[in-house]
């Protein structure tokens, strides 16, 4: 099964989990990033990122190499922002919605508290279909644990399951 892990990360937590998942799935790792970078520190980070998420923005992305037809499985990884998916993932899903239709899509979300369940619902609305597997992680880079690693491995097993 050929897989891709597509992720956006502002402060490295999602990137950390994405790398582990890609290793477990022997997947291509594809990082997406907005053309205009969000502030990554202090009040400005929460203000501009939170506003963008609340307004359900879909910011233009830097060019990336992804072709859904190459993959049987696509895993999306994103940080939760204001109870929503971080906006670059919305852009990615919008840009690839037709190509992703009918394909196996799974997702993991990194958060520091709560909101991932709502974010998954919004992601499913955007995709126009249900996710095949979901995983919620609490700041996996900042709070590394064997439990998180095990959760990622179980999630990858579920992603693989036909
Ligand atoms: C703009 C912004 C909004 C956030 N909103 C939430 C939230 O609603 N719920 C939550 O649990 N964490 C929230 N967080 C924390 C991040 O989701 C969390 O720290 C995540 O692990 C960061 O991933 P990253 O390091 O890949 O960027 C927010 C962070 C930012 C920057």
Number of strands: 6
Strand content: 15-25%
Number of helices: 5
Q: What's the order of the H and E elements? A: EHEHEEHEHEH
Whole-number tally of structural domains: 1
CATH class: Alpha Beta
Q: Helix amount, in percent?
A: 40-55%
> Which structural class fits the helix and strand makeup?
alpha/beta
The N- and C-terminal alpha carbons lie at a distance of 10 Å
Rg for CA atoms = 14 Å
* CATH-defined fold name: Rossmann fold
Question: What can be said about the biggest beta sheet?
Answer: 6 strands, mixed
> Which of globular, elongated, flat, extended, rod-shaped describes the shape?
globular
Q: What would you give as the CATH superfamily? A: Flavodoxin domain
Describe the structure.
This protein is of the alpha/beta class. 41% of the residues lie in helices and 20% in strands. It has a single domain, classed as Flavodoxin domain (Rossmann fold, 3-Layer(aba) Sandwich), CATH 3.40.50. It has helices spanning 13-25, 42-54, 87-100, 116-127, 146-160, and strands at 3-7, 28-31, 73-81, 84-85, 104-111, 134-138. Strands 1, 2, 3, 4, 5 and 6 form a six-stranded mixed beta sheet that branches. Strand 5 (104-111), helix 4 and strand 6 form a beta-alpha-beta unit. Helix 1 (13-25) packs across helix 5 (146-160). The chain is globular, with a radius of gyration of 14 Å. The protein starts with a strand and ends with a helix. Bound molecules: flavin mononucleotide (FMN).
């Amino acid at each position: 099964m050929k897989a891709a892990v597509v992720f956006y990360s502002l402060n490295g937590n999602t990137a950390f989990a994405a790398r582990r998942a890609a290793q477990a799935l022997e997947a291509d790792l594809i990082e997406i990033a907005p053309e205009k970078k969000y502030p990554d520190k202090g009040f400005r980070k929460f203000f501009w990122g939170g506003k963008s998420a609340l307004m359900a923005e879909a910011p233009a992305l830097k060019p990336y190499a992804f072709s859904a037809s190459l993959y049987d499985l696509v895993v999306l990884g994103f940080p939760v922002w204001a109870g929503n998916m971080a906006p670059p993932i919305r852009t990615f899903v919008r840009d690839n919605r037709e190509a992703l239709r009918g394909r196996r899509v799974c997702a993991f979300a990194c958060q520091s508290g709560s909101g991932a369940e709502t974010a998954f619902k919004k992601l499913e609305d955007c995709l126009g279909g249900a996710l095949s597997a979901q995983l919620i992680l609490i700041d996996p880079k900042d709070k590394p644990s064997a439990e998180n690693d095990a959760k990622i491995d179980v999630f990858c097993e579920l992603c693989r399951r036909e």
